Each structure stands twice: as C-alpha cells, then as structure tokens.
Amino acid sequence: MNRILIAEDNPVNRELLREIREADNYDVVEAGDGQEALAKLEQSAPDLVLLDINMPVLDGFAALRRIRQHPRFSQLPVVAVTAYAMKEDREKILQAGFNSYLSKPINAAALLRELQRFRL
C-alpha cells in the first residue's frame, strides 16, 4: 500500500485530502504544520508528500528545503498544495524544488492524475 503524508494546517482541507486518498486504499499520515510534517516524515517514510505552502511554525518552502537536505528523502516526490494560483506563484513553487503543484480547492481528479504521474 502506498503511503502519503498530508501536511495541511486547515483541518477541513486535511480531512478532504485524507478522505479522497483513503477511498482509494492509500495509507494516509497527517501533519498540521511543517515542523510536524518533518517529524512524521521520519516516522512514516511516505512515498509522496502533499505539502501546503502557507502553514504555521514552518511553512511549505522551509519544510521542503529541509526535506531536500535529508539524504533519505532528497528525491521524495513533494507536491505543493496551495491557494496561490497565479502563474508566477506556480513558477516560484516549482523553482523552489516542488515536483508538482495543485491549487485549492482540491480537485479529486487532478489529485489522482498527480498520484498516477508518480506511479502511486
């Protein structure tokens, strides 16, 4: 079974992402901020991370930098999940090292396409 780490500070968005993925038999691990996501990353060794950009404690950009610095997780697929939907926001996110980008509100079909792209 594939494991996905969802790092999202909004409980409603986190629940929606979890329900979409659990319905397809994914093992879902949740974190409410970037710092918690890093701790859960070590514990759960996910196959992919869905990482919100705007979170308390440690935002998505800072969390991604730490993920990329970790030898074990430097190649882990990390998908930005954000309300920032302008073209320049997308470019900034991809240039920061995210593998992909999903805008909010999350579209279940777009999320599934991204997971399939990473063969999950």
What does this structure look like?
The protein is of the alpha/beta class and 120 residues long. The protein has 5 helices and 5 strands; from the N terminus they run E-H-E-H-E-H-E-H-E-H. Helix 4 (87-95) links the parallel strand 4 and strand 5. The radius of gyration is 13 Å and the shape is globular. The protein starts with a strand and ends with a helix.
Q: Tell me about the biggest sheet?
A: 5 strands, parallel
Strand content: 15-25%
Q: What Rg do the Cα atoms give?
A: 13 Å
In N-to-C order, the SSE pattern is EHEHEHEHEH
Number of strands: 5
Report the average pLDDT across residues.
91
Keywords:
single chain; 5 strands
Concise description?
With 120 residues, this protein is an alpha/beta fold. The protein is 43% helix and 20% strand.
Topology:
Blueprint: E1 3-7, H1 11-22, E2 27-31, H2 34-44, E3 48-52, H3 60-69, E4 78-82, H4 87-95, E5 100-103, H5 108-117
Parallel strand pairs: 1-2, 1-3, 3-4, 4-5
Helix pairs in contact: 2-3
